[in-house]
Write a structure and sequence with these properties.
The chain is mainly alpha-helical and about 130 residues long. The chain has one domain. The chain is built from 5 helices and no strands. It is elongated and about 60 Å long. About 15% of the residues are buried.
Length: about 130
């Protein structure tokens, strides 16, 4: 018995899903599929995590010596504040409810989609 999906057996093509439905940027940015919106959130929070990590590395590099070698004190304060704001408001708060709530919860409860998919996409833009 072969492990080929029944749709692939008849048509020779794989069944469309949220990853291969369409490959254009427009299809991703205007999607109403909760799985794609969850992936958009995942990519966004990963980028913000990297930005916050770079700020954290800059803070640690400044603290390696007792003198202010890399940044002026005002710049250090700005980087420190930017690190906190990015990590809390752009990574930590959206990570659990947006990514897991958009991607996993509808799959776990067996829902085909969320109640208001366009509002869900709007929340990603905001």
């Amino acid at each position: 018995m072969s492990a080929v999906h029944p749709v692939e057996e008849h048509t020779g093509k794989e069944e469309p899903n949220y990853l291969n439905w369409s490959y254009t940027i427009k299809s991703w940015l205007l999607t109403v599929d909760h799985k794609r919106i969850g992936m958009l959130y995942l990519v966004s929070i990963t980028i913000f995590f990297i930005v916050g990590g770079i700020a954290a590395a800059a803070i640690r590099a400044e603290l390696m010596t007792p003198k202010a070698d890399l940044f002026a004190p005002d710049t250090y304060n700005r980087i420190f504040s930017a690190h906190g704001i990015v990590m809390i408001f752009f990574f930590l708060i959206p990570s659990i409810p947006a990514t897991l709530g958009n991607f996993l919860i509808p799959l776990m409860i067996g829902a085909k989609d969320l109640a208001f998919p366009r509002l869900n996409l709007l929340s990603w833009y905001v």
